[in-house]
């Protein structure tokens, strides 16, 4: 009698276990990112297609995985239709060969932000846009820009010396104004206009005499 009861209990337990689905792998086909929690279509075993699984992500970070991304699905309560996705991976785009302790953020277009050992951060992209009210940079050793042009649409102010090793050109607006001494070393000064010192014009002025008591220009 006890053996029969034990056998029946074992069979019931096995039936319950078989009806409760364990975590499984799937492949993402489609992601709907317009809702509060992203809804995902996943291909599971064989021809199994599961609709509207929730893609759970950590606060402060969100991404839309491309089609073909592998996913780990946890069926809540053992029910496939109540599954949530807790992890994704796509080896086609993942940044490879990082060293121990390094971290990378990447997308499917090849843009990357890599936090490297030695307190080094490398960013690679085609266009880097920053939108903010105030932007401050403190570089105690220096800041280098390797670019054919550095432009601002408003005022440029330097609290230190401005050096133009390759020359300097100023045009448009109200021209150039200097406050303080202007020193020139070597070379010459050329202008197509006039030069005025105080109220005296270089082009249009008169001398008191030419040495013989006569005024001259």
From TrEMBL:
Residue stretches of biased makeup (Basic and acidic residues): 207-217
Domain Bacteriophage Mu Gp45 N-terminal residue range list: 25-91
Domain of life (superkingdom): Bacteria
One family name in Pfam for this protein: Phage_Mu_Gp45
Region (Disordered): 168-217
InterPro entries assigned to the protein according to its UniProt record, in alphabetical order: GpV/Gp45, Phage_Mu_Gp45, Phage_Mu_Gp45_N
Comp. bias intervals (Polar residues): 180-189
NCBIfam families per UniProt: phage_P2_V
Protein name: Mu-like prophage protein gp45
Lineage of source species: Bacteria, Pseudomonadati, Pseudomonadota, Gammaproteobacteria, Pasteurellales
